Amino acid sequence: MLAKLARSLREALQNGDPAFRKAYLRLFVGQVIVNLTGEGCALASRGTTLSDTATAVMAASAPLDFPGHGRVIVSSVYNNNTVLKLTGQSALGGLAATSRIGTSIGSTVTLPANATPQVGQTVFITEVFYTYHSITPVGSFLNATIVPSQLYDVGYY
């Protein structure tokens, strides 16, 4: 039964409806990005420097082209007596994307309530941006009408 499902999926990916193939690709890329976000947060929260964390996420980004179409931003935010301050940040990748957390070290930031650290604690944040480009005209049309071309994920540890 599993073999039959695998054959059907393989056939659909090779010769099926372009919309299905595009949706599957977006799902695959989305899962890679979610995994990279989690790995980045885990590394940073365990004491890896922000720059080493960004480097490790970039190294783990294959098969995606992060040097050309992606960006990882790793940040630290400290709760100083209920005032959230951006205390560090490192970014790598070829995509021009700006952190949605903040960009100025020392500036105050706003985080979701469930990601706000306790007073005197730090939260580590990994943001991953990726823009994929289709190599066919049909894929480019679907990009513009069905699937957003820039994907984003954020994690807080």
Descriptive tags:
157 residues; alpha+beta; four-stranded antiparallel sheet; 5 helices; 41% helix; 24% strand
What features would you describe in this structure?
This protein is of the alpha+beta class and 157 residues long. The protein has one domain (16-156). Helix content is 41%, strand content 24%. It has five helices and four strands; from the N terminus they run ααααβββαβ. It has a four-stranded antiparallel β-sheet. α1 (2-15) packs across α2 and α2 runs antiparallel to α3 (50-59). The model has no long low-confidence stretch (mean pLDDT 86).
Q: What would a concise description of this structure say?
A:
The chain is of the alpha+beta class. The protein contains five helices and four strands. The chain has one domain.
